[in-house]
Amino acid sequence: MQRVFEALSSVVRRKILAYLAHADMTAGEIAARFEISKPAVSQHLTVLENAGLVTSEKRGQFVHYRLVPDHLANTLHAYAQEVCPVSKPLKAESARIAAKRKS
C-alpha cells in the first residue's frame, strides 16, 4: 500500500494515469505530452508499475503501458478524476486516442 501512496503523490504520475484511462500508450507517446525528459517519464512509469497501477507489454520494439483496471487505487483515482478539473481534459484525450485506434 505504501508504494501506491508514493506513486499517487506525484502530479506527473496522476496525469499519466489519466492519459491511460481509455487507451494504452507507449512511453514515447506519454513522454510527448510532458515537458520532462523521456528517462524521467520512464522512471515515473516504473514507479507506477511497481505499485501495481499499470502494466507493460513489449510489442515489437515498443513497450505499451495500460492501467490495471481491477486495482482499487485506479478505481478510486478514476472516481476522483471525474471531479478534478486537471484530469478531465487528459481523460478526454485518452478517449479520443482510443476511439481513433478502433476506427
UniProtKB/TrEMBL annotation:
Residues 1-87 form the HTH arsR-type domain. Keywords: DNA-binding, Transcription, Transcription regulation. Pfam families: HTH_5. PROSITE patterns: HTH_ARSR_2. SMART domains: HTH_ARSR. CDD domains: HTH_ARSR. Signal peptide: none annotated. It comes from the Bacteria. This is DNA-binding transcriptional ArsR family regulator. It comes from Brevundimonas alba.
